[in-house]
Amino acid sequence: MLQRKVIAYMMLLTLVLSFMPWSEEEAAAQGAQTASKIDAMLVIDVSNSMDTSDKDKIGNEAMKMFIDMLSSTGDKVGIVAYTDKIEREKALLEIRSETDKEDLKHFIDQLNRGAYTDNAVGVKEAVKVLEQGADPAHEPMIVLLADGNNYLNKNGSRTQAESDQELSAAVAAAKQKGIPIYTIGLNADGQLNQNALADLSKQTNGKSFVTSSADDLPQILSEIFASHQKLKIVPVQSMTGNGSYQDVTVNVPNANVMEANISIMSSQPVDLKLYDPSGKEVAIPDDNVRLSRSKSYSLLKLLQPAQGDWKLQVKGAKKDKIDINLVFNYDLKLALDPIPSKTYKQGDKIKINAYLTSNGQKLQNDALYRNMNAVLHVKDLDTGNSVDLSLVNEGDRFTGEFEVKDKHEYELKVRAEEKSFYRETEPVKVSAKPATGAGASAQPGASEGEVNKPFPMWIVYSATGGIVLALAAAFLIAAWKKANRGFVGQMVIEVRDENTGEKSHPQYKKLNAFKGKCSLHQLLQLAPEFKETEKMVFIPDKNDRILLKNGSNGTIEKSGRAIDASRGLELKSGDRVTVPLTQVDKTIWIEYIV
Predict the structure, then answer these.
(1) Is the alpha carbon torsion for 503, 508, 513, 515 positive or negative?
(2) What is the mean pLDDT of residues 412-433?
(3) Cα-atom radius of gyration of the chain, to the nearest Å?
């Protein structure tokens, strides 16, 4: 039996190896087939001073607008509300439906104020959550909204020096992990330390914003979303409401637009009508039209909209100022043909050929290139000087050449842009420095015969035997581990009272104290009112996942739908389920995080 399983592992390994990309170019092509996503941590200062600088809680509205602008599925969002401690926290939640977005926005609405401020606390926690739960294929980011400097409890043991040291360590970790920190400083009282916030952003390649009015926050959050996605905000129209419908033209420039986010910012609600390029009225909402409303904005999201001029009719209150902006979301990347060599001589010319790709394939829609310009950004790594060289738009690609001027090392990167977005290729390094020392020769001392000598097959046989032994050992170890498997990670549990709508603070239940299995009732500390959960059992599974088996008559819901978990429902980090109780009017919210 063991021998058959080992042979099966070998066959599987051979199959996997046959499909693995071995060159850098093939590996890059594999990675380009998936559109990038966002893993965002929203970090909010909820100290009492915010009652003055943002008395209408526009900051909360702006954070909600940011969530609404995210893709309909795939992005992940977490929330940290802090004072001089973590007041409330929402672990990274993968957005799979509009219900998930509403849950995140509801969480923001429930945030309360508290005394004192320690910015290091919020930033450190956000970095930790992204380090533990971010998807390596996603683009992580932190958005920090604060209104002032630290205000520590004089009777506490925490010192400003300790806070500064903790913040410095968190920023260093963010920089090392490639997590940009976007900072928004509310400077209502003029006391904000703008330089401190700007430094956080500069160190991590983020951006810093400062405003004295909370009314600017929705626009700022739009700019942060666009900047992180390499998009541009397209101003559509500003108007003053007159109590009647006013026409606004929204141009969808090409068929590669995945989503069009139309933000309508106003102090009072607006009424909307929408007509597609053929002139047909489109229902709001519809399968491909999503509408989100809040106190200070309305957001219309068009999914895969048809190319052409859409007509939006907006009816606002008389004399109400209305600003309308547009942010597109594209499934596009900019690819650069491989540079033939990494080493050159002074005077050599390097051919440049770059083009757009969609879903890993070269873009066939030549119309998108018409309004685009591209440059080759060259940075001299020895002097630090940079120059942009214009490239030729060939209609379906961008071409040009770079002449090596000096015996230096260079970094090359192509940037292409039009009015609604830009894209950049990954930087490529080339060197024109002369080779020195023994390492200058590719194979020092090797003769032509030695270079062409056939590869010794004994190495292949030894390696194959080693793999077989390693797989056999791995199988035996895996079998032993399965029999003694323990939990990893923790459960975040919240209980909502359906009569009052109030939700408890999140409780973090470490799972590593259990082996084999544990019940939901155990995690709820065996409280009598939750007795009906004693047959809802968690079992550790492979790959840091768990199985939730429901042996009770109760219901388990996921994304608003009842799930049959009698045979086991697999949960991975970030998955969330709810358990509506029948014996008491309460609902248990459960999130598994590793």
Answers:
(1) positive
(2) 89
(3) 28
